[in-house]
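In practice, a research group might receive sequence data for several interacting partners and want a quick structural hypothesis before committing to experiments. The following worked case mirrors that situation: the sequences arrive first, and a predicted assembly follows.
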Amino acid sequence: MMTPTTTVPATVTAFDLVSGLSAQRPTLRRRLSAMAAMYADVEAARAQVERDDVLVYEFYDMGVPETSGDVAYGTSITYPGKVGDEYHMTKGHFHSVLDTGEIYFCLRGTGYMLMENPEGDWQAAEFGPGQAVYVPRRYAHRSINTSATEPLVTFFAFPGHAGHDYGTIETRGFRKLCVERDGEPVFVDNPKWAG
Amino acid sequence: MMTPTTTVPATVTAFDLVSGLSAQRPTLRRRLSAMAAMYADVEAARAQVERDDVLVYEFYDMGVPETSGDVAYGTSITYPGKVGDEYHMTKGHFHSVLDTGEIYFCLRGTGYMLMENPEGDWQAAEFGPGQAVYVPRRYAHRSINTSATEPLVTFFAFPGHAGHDYGTIETRGFRKLCVERDGEPVFVDNPKWAG
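A structural hypothesis for the assembly, expressed as tokens:
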């Protein structure tokens, strides 16, 4: 017979509200070389990797139990930059359990949450400090930093059992790209989209 | 036969990172008169209500679907003040589905998250800007503002199906109170605890 667990210590983590980072834990880091093929201008991506394999984004996995009673959370930091005329972005993913949503709360920076569902809809929601974007169930989501200088820092939370499906986006991409035109971010069709 | 929903608009809400408030939605507001009996010094609470029925805290219910695939979220603002020597606090609650946790991310202020479970454990975790407190499953939780001047502003997220059980705490209270002694917050036994 198992002894019931009567004490579960609360996890307390200090994040810096400016950098988004915590000194208490390591982040998962994604350099450009890990996602060069996701950008439209693959040549520009490869040339940048040759010059400097820049850190595009980093985020936390806090190791919360993967149950529907728990809430996975952490911060995500996408650094400013472009690959060709395409803004720095996260890989983006569906949840393995497709019918799960996610909340992103922007602490700093400027950008977009790009979303699309398997049924054909896509949306982009603007991020600025204090903006909360609730990603509906079934929507793949990617953070995009459109600032020339500031990191995009968000605090996120999703159901513990949601899981991550990165493969679908790695294979077919998002329907839309976010590129700079006349100094402004615009969303254009992704010519490589393989939906 | 139902037509499948192929488009679910993302909910975007702007919160002020200093006040914690959003101009887009109303808050749920708890004045002292709604919780006077929860304070140890009920006479002090009633006298304060006579003078001025102060707003103790307010928070958002964003109306997220109550499913395990969704994440309820919002901000909570507990205003500074004391009732006798007991610091301003939220009512506190268990989740109706006891085996659900919650994340609180402090944006501003100073205080504690007070927690207790039915098995007899209690804990208090400090809140300061950037501190994330993960409330484990089975723990009732209450925010306490120990600052003399600043609101305690947190961003919270919990499983959509968790529900709220306020009645248990309203009936029996928390095991511990947070009171000021020599200018510092300390946790003492709640003489009225009815566990």
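Before designing any experiment, note the following. Chain A touches chain B through 57 residues (CB under 8 Å). The two ends of chain A are 51 Å apart (CA to CA).
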